[in-house]
Description:
By secondary structure, the protein is α/β, with parallel strands linked by helices. The protein has nine helices and six strands, in the order E-H-E-H-E-H-H-E-H-H-E-H-H-E-H. The longest helix has 13 residues, at 33-45.
Amino acid sequence: MRGRALPLVPNPWGNRWRKRIGLLGGSFNPAHAGHRHISLQALHCLGLDEVWWLVAPQNPLKPTAGMAPFAERLAQAERIAGHPAIRVTGLEARLGTRYTADTLAVLTRRFPAARFVWLMGADNLSQICHWDRWTSIFRRVAVAVFDRSPYSYHSLAGKAAQRFARHRLSVRRSVLLARMAPPAWAFLHLKRHPASATAIRRIQAGQR
């Protein structure tokens, strides 16, 4: 029996694809079923053509201690993805970008016909104001925020949500997010998944 063919990695030099593409960035330390769950929900609810996992060489806001090697995290993500519309990439390593703002600037320039949507959990909405040039992220691409207890209430009262409050789409209009010109964002109350990379690392550490 043949193994499942992995999705093709996007050409970092770009093309003229007219696709709606979700971007899920992070350390993926490790990738888990929760990442896959969010990706499948985004594909279905936002009408996306693809979701790209941007496995970061090193998150600037996270310590290097306890971070698995990049190649190991990338391989694990490929094993977990398990869907032809989910593309696991090391684009940031190939592009030489460190910050999300820089990555998005390059991607929107090299893929000018694509409509990108940045995907993130409510925990990241709470802390995105600490990211480098965070407001440029909202102004460059649409943003989809996924409900993640217990962070959701705090995140919606936070700096980023308040700063871009008038650009938030209603629940009814959130299905149009991938077609909207930025700034535009939506908070999606979808079925949650219990998986957590932090919890997985703790379990793995306890088994050693």
